[in-house]
Amino acid sequence: MSPTKVLVVDDDLDILQITKDNLELDGFAVSVASTGKDALSAVKRNGPDLVILDIMLPDLDGVQICRIIQKQSQAPIVMLTAKDTVSDKVLCLESGADDYVVKPFDYLEPAARINACLRRGKGPPPPEHVLEAGSLRIDPNARRVDFRQDFQS
User: Is the pTM of this model over 0.85?
Assistant: First the structure.
């Protein structure tokens, strides 16, 4: 199974590098962006399974980016920001974010939040596959089993 693809978006290059390094140690495939425009390009180009997104970016507001990503992707979004007011948290969550982490944070927290989001089922879709054996057809994604009576032995 391929590693979960995570896009980390932050304009603080130290936080970006530390987060990337720690997530890679946890087995995630990590790409990074330091601007909103680069983040949107990376979402289109890489199709991440999850996005970690800062609110305060130099070109676009993270809340705007969150809304745009939600229209283009099923990837969960974890906001990672220094903004810690209840109104900031509510705005992000109502704009499509799945979780919210306040800076400074412990290096273990992002991976735990990523895993929690993916467990909730909003992660990458299951692979498309249908199993067939004789007249039996099993589609695990649709949770359907069909039996063809027209099968000739």
Answer: no
